[in-house]
C-alpha cells in the first residue's frame, strides 16, 4: 500500500489544482439525491408540509425563532435552510427568523442563546452539538430543537438515553449508519491495512463516531489509530502524521474538519492517502466517498417538528428523529486519480 501511495502521489499532484478549487467552494443550496427513495422522501416532505399548512390557525400570531448555528459550512447551512423553508411553508410571513452564526466558538453560542432568551423567543433551533449544549444550559422553558447532532445522549450527558430527551428539548440527529460506512470503506479499500481516524477532540460527537466505527473496522481486519486535534490550529500537523502513517483516513461528521477541508486535501492528496468522510460536505472538500444523509431534508424534518411545537404539541414527549435515507456518494475526479473502481450503486457528487 505504501508503494502504491508514492506512485499515486505523482498522478494526484496533476489534479490538485482542480481539487483545491472544489475545496474552497461553499453553497447553501442542496440538491436532492438522484435516487428513487430520495425522490419519494422529497414528495413526502412536500405533502406533509401542505397538510401542516392547512392546519395552521389564522389568529395572526407572529412566531419569533432564534437560530444558533455553530459554524458556517455546507451541511449546517443546508440544515438551517431546510428548517426555515419548512416553517415558512406552514406559517408564511407569520414566522420570523433571527439567524446567528457562532463562527465555531462555543462561548459565542452561549452569548447568542442568552440573547434569544432575553428576547423571549418562541422557539430556538440549535444547529450542531455545541449550539445544543449552550441552549440546554441557557433555558429550560423555551422549546429547543437540535439538528445536525449525532447523538443526544452523548451531547447532553444522558445515561441510558432511550430516544426522548424530555423537558424542553427534542430534535433531529445526523448519525449515519457507522457500520455501513465501515463496510463502504472495506468495499473500496479491501487491501488497506492501517486506517487513521482523524477528528476534533473538542467535539464529543466526533469522538463517539470514531470510537464506534473503530470497532466495526477492526472486525473487518483493519488496524486503527486515533489522530485527535484540539482545534484548527493543530489540524495540519495532526493530519500530516495521519497521512504519513495510514493507508486510508476516515473523518466523521466533524464540524472543524468540515470548515477546513482544504487543509486536509492539501496534505492527503500529495501524500496519496484517500479520505473516506462521514458526510457529503467533507467528502466534496477532501474525500473520495461517503455514506451520507441530506442535511437539507434533515432541516425540513426539524422544521416540521417546530411547526407541531408552535401549534401546541408537547415537545417533552417528542422522540429524536433520524434521517430516513442514506446515499453512497463519491467524488469522480479523486476516485479516478486513485484508480478506484466505484460500484454502480454510488451517486457522483457535483464538483
UniProtKB/TrEMBL annotation:
Q: Please give the start and end residues of each transmembrane region.
A: none
Alphabetized, the UniProt keywords read:
Signal
Question: Which SUPFAM superfamilies is this protein grouped with?
Answer: Periplasmic binding protein-like I (SSF53822)
Q: Sorted alphabetically, which InterPro entries does this protein's record hold?
A: ABC_transpt-TYRBP-like (IPR007487), Peripla_BP_I (IPR028082)
Task: Show which residues constitute the signal peptide.
Answer: 1-21
Low complexity: bias regions: 34-53
Renumbered to this chain, region (Disordered) spans: 25-53
State the PROSITE patterns in the record: PROKAR_LIPOPROTEIN (PS51257)
What is the name attached to this protein's record? ABC-type uncharacterized transport system, periplasmic component
Amino acid at each position: 500500500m505504501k508503494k502504491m501511495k508514492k506512485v499515486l502521489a505523482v498522478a494526484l499532484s496533476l489534479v490538485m489544482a482542480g481539487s483545491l478549487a472544489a475545496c474552497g467552494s461553499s453553497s447553501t443550496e442542496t440538491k436532492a439525491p438522484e435516487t428513487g427513495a430520495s425522490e419519494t422522501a422529497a414528495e413526502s416532505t412536500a405533502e406533509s408540509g401542505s397538510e401542516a399548512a392547512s392546519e395552521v390557525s389564522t389568529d395572526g400570531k407572529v412566531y419569533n425563532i432564534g437560530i444558533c448555528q455553530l459554524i458556517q459550512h455546507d451541511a449546517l447551512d443546508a440544515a438551517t435552510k431546510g428548517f426555515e423553508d419548512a416553517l415558512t411553508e406552514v406559517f408564511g410571513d407569520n414566522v420570523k427568523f433571527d439567524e446567528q452564526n457562532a463562527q465555531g466558538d462555543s462561548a459565542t453560542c452561549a452569548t447568542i442563546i442568552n440573547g434569544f432568551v432575553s428576547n423571549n423567543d418562541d422557539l430556538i433551533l440549535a444547529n450542531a452539538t455545541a449550539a445544543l449544549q449552550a441552549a440546554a444550559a441557557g433555558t429550560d422553558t423555551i422549546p429547543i430543537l437540535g439538528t445536525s447532532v449525532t447523538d443526544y445522549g452523548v451531547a447532553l450527558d444522558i445515561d441510558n438515553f432511550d430516544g426522548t430527551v424530555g423537558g424542553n428539548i427534542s430534535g433531529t440527529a445526523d448519525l449515519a449508519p457507522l457500520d455501513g460506512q465501515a463496510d463502504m470503506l472495506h468495499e473500496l479499500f479491501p487491501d488497506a491495512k492501517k486506517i487513521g481516524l482523524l477528528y476534533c477532540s473538542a467535539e464529543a460527537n466526533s469522538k463517539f463516531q470514531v470510537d464506534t466505527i473503530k470497532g466495526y473496522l477492526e472486525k473487518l481486519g483493519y488496524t486503527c489509530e486515533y489522530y485527535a486535534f484540539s482545534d484548527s490550529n493543530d489540524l495540519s500537523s495532526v493530519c500530516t502524521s495521519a497521512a504519513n502513517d495510514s493507508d486510508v483516513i476516515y473523518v466523521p461528521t466533524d464540524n472543524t474538519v468540515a470548515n477546513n477541508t482544504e487543509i486536509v486535501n492539501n496534505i492527503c492528496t500529495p501524500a496519496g492517502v484517500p479520505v473516506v468522510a462521514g458526510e457529503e460536505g467533507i467528502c466534496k472538500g477532501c474525500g473520495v466517498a461517503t455514506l451520507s444523509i441530506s442535511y437539507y431534508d434533515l432541516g425540513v424534518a426539524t422544521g416540521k417538528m417546530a411547526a407541531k411545537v408552535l401549534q401546541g404539541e408537547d415537545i417533552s414527549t417528542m422522540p429524536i428523529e433520524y434521517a430516513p435515507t442514506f446515499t453512497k456518494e463519491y467524488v469522480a475526479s479523486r476516485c479516478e486519480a486513485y484508480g478506484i473502481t466505484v460500484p454502480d450503486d454510488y451517486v457522483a457528487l457535483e464538483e
